[in-house]
Design goal:
Layout lengths: L1 H8 L7 H9 L3 H15 L6 H6 L3 H12 L1 H4 L4 H34 L2 H26 L2
Amino acid sequence: MEFLSLIVSYPELIGTPEAGRAGDLLIDPASRQLFRALRESISAGHHLDISAWLESAPADTRRTISMALMDEGMSKADNPPAKLRALSSRLELQRIEAEISMTRQLLKQARSRGDSSEAAAIMKRGIELDQTKQGLKAALQRP
């Protein structure tokens, strides 16, 4: 919700790579739909009618986003591009952590089957994911 609130407050960010990536990382179907509608409207040069945009969302999502828009800590920023980069990195980090969890499960399964070549490939992927995770954590520490 923080991401959508930021984009609504600063629509000029919609065309940035970080906004595109963050939109791709949204998991909630209602949030993904709202992001697509927001991107289409802003990219077409239309004035964003926030009320109409919110009405297209399910009631629970509508309430949550409305509250986020009213919370200046979520929707306002001293440096909107930096806040967007941080949000995008956090979403990416969450995706990586989910993939690491799945990789651990796959490794257990490969080991239980005695498939050493698959286990080695999965461990290699796990190392790559961990390196990516550490890079994202370092990026979040930078201003």
